[in-house]
Amino acid sequence: MTASAAQALPARHSAASGRKDRLTVIKLGGNAMVDGELEASFADDVVRMHRAGLQPVVVHGGGPQISAELERHGLTATFRGGLRVTTPRAMGVVRMVLAGRVQRELVGLINRHGPLAVGMTGEDADTVTAVRHLPVIEGRPVDIGRVGEISAVDTTLLRTLLADGRIPVVSPIARSADDDGIYNVNADTAAAALASALGAGELLLLTDVQGLYADWPDSHEVIERLTATELEALLPELSHGMTPKMAACLHAVRHGVDRARVLDGRVRHAALAGLRPDERSGTTVVPDAKPSPIDRMAPHMASRNSTCAYGPQGSSDERTDP
Ligand SMILES: Nc1ncnc2c1ncn2[C@@H]1O[C@H](COP(=O)(O)OP(=O)(O)O)[C@@H](O)[C@H]1O
Ligand SMILES: CC(=O)N[C@@H](CCC(=O)OP(=O)(O)O)C(=O)O
Fold first, then answer.
1. Domain map (residue ranges) of the chain
2. Residue 268 Cα, ligand 2 centroid: separation in angstroms?
3. Which ligand sits nearest to residue 62's alpha carbon?
4. Which helix (H) or strand (E) holds 242?
5. H/E run at residue 84
6. What are phi and psi of 319, to 5 degrees?
7. Does ligand 2 lie within 6 Å of residue 282's CB atom?
8. Cβ distance 48 to 56 under 8 Å?
9. Residues in the chain, pLDDT under 50
């Protein structure tokens, strides 16, 4: 990390600015955790944000790592609408990999810089509660096992940790409101839910592509910027991991987050660079423009936001790994 990258943090992210501007939720996807050096540079970025007066909250994924571990257990990884079909047995593997391995690695990397990171899952202090998620695929609700739809977020523990100068590192597992069990939650979905519940200014999603490609997989032309309404129109056409990821961006900007960005986590220090308002890499999602005074005088002419029910969006794609 260069000193100039740290200095490049925008002025509105100074410690003196309002709390919303300081709170940043950063999600590191499992696909972006391809080598130790990249993970270390991510940890370095998070610590630099913290030292610059921001309040970073890290949410991590681990999809490929879970799939590899399932395979070692002789289990096949299957996805519907970008979400893992999670049997009760697979749920044990999911929790072990996310909370026992991936989260521990990130906490260790951040804490090389000092006693900052505290690992937790959504189960802790009932931070994330979910009910069974039944995605609608080809017009019908489908049972994909222990996959949760977030029904409540309690930010008390997160705020306590932030007030104590810590960096929470959250695994996307929720307490179940239906029974005594737990639910697997897509990490992008969890990050967006935490960002909106905390009233974060920014949501950064680090993945293994340069952003949302307009014509994937045929072209790598990145869509630079989308309003909430533009993204909503695109969502039904998306597939695989991009469905929950872009649905998460939409939820965030429709629920108070100023900006949600999908960035290439394979690039070193992508998180820090992603905070710069003039940074043009990746895909940036912004809320719809507020109606102008003229629109307010003629409401029938104003463009309207449709309501956004939260939760990972089901789509008709199906994928089996490897
Ligand atoms: N329109 C698209 N633009 C970019 N990537 C896409 C698109 N549609 C599907 N993908 C796939 O989504 C993947 C990212 O989602 P995912 O695998 O869940 O990543 P992560 O682990 O970072 O959450 C990409 O690697 C790519 O294969
Ligand atoms: C329900 C569901 O699909 N959960 C995800 C949780 C991890 C995740 O989201 O990891 P990435 O961000 O690396 O994809 C899974 O089991 O893979």
1. 10-321
2. 22
3. 2
4. helix 242-254
5. strand 83-84
6. -140, 140
7. no
8. no
9. 1-18, 299-322
| Nearest Cα residue to 45 out of 281, 275, 282 | 275
Residue nearest to atom 13 of ligand 1 (CA): 241
Helix (H) or strand (E) holding 140: strand 140-141
**Cα 166 to chain center, whole Å?**
19
The encoded tokens of residue 85 equal 């079909």
Site to probe by mutation for ligand 2, drawn from 58, 67, 84, 239 as the one with most ligand atoms within 8 Å of Cβ, is: 84
Strands 259-264 and 202-207: parallel
pLDDT at 279: 74
Give the ligand at the shortest distance from the Cα of 243. Answer: 1
- Per-residue confidence (pLDDT) for residue 274, from 0 to 100: 86
Q: Tell me how far the alpha carbon of residue 208 lies from the centroid of ligand 1, in angstroms.
A: 7
Looking at residue 103, its pLDDT comes to: 98
pLDDT, position 280:
80
Alpha-carbon distance of 151 to 128, in angstroms, equals 8
Report which protein residue has its CA nearest ligand 2's atom 4: 186
* Among 162, 247, 184, 183, CA closest to 212: 247
Does the beta carbon of 200 sit less than 6 angstroms from any atom of ligand 2? no
- Max alpha carbon distance in the chain (Å)? 63
Pocket of ligand 1 (CB under 6 A): 29-32, 61, 63, 188, 207-209, 212-213, 216, 238-242, 245
For domain 10-321, the question of CATH label 3.40.1160.10 is answered with yes
Ligand 2 lined by 78 (C-beta under 6 Å): no
